[in-house]
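Quick question, first post here. What does this chain look like in 3D?
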Amino acid sequence: MQRLFRVSSIINNVTYEMRTYDRVVFHWFIADREDKDLIYEDKIINYSKLSEKERENAERYIQELFSEKDATLLKSELDRKSSIITTIEEVKLPIPDHIQPYGLLRVEKGKGFSDLSSHKSYEFPFKVKGFFNINDSYESLKGDENPTEITRLPENFLKGSK
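> Answer (accepted):
Ran it through. Tokens below.
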């Protein structure tokens, strides 16, 4: 059976709605895969019993996954061109029959897509997008350039003080 993989990256300094966030997870997926000749019966649980819509969703999810070669190519390029942390994880097959592909998720407050393919330095033979959820990350803390001055300590700062 063909092995399939997910690729994700943790990215810092992501700007979203005029705020900066750290540790934003981007789940990369292949968008608009041209190779539609995948065999789905052995990759999706209960494939023959699914409705047409359920079957389309499960097939699209499989189409969004990476081969080992493509996942390794994407990770090596992201590692080479940035300081982000990228991981590859093998997907356990067969997948559940009710799984939702990233491409069908809606853009909502704090959730959205990044089109990696639109960057000038993009050189892959396939189109890649990333899904992120800003609500699972941390807003960056930025200090100011003013020194902190302590003008008075609380009266009970030192134990035993009166």
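Residues 68-81 form the longest helix (14 residues).
Helices lie at 52-64, 68-81.
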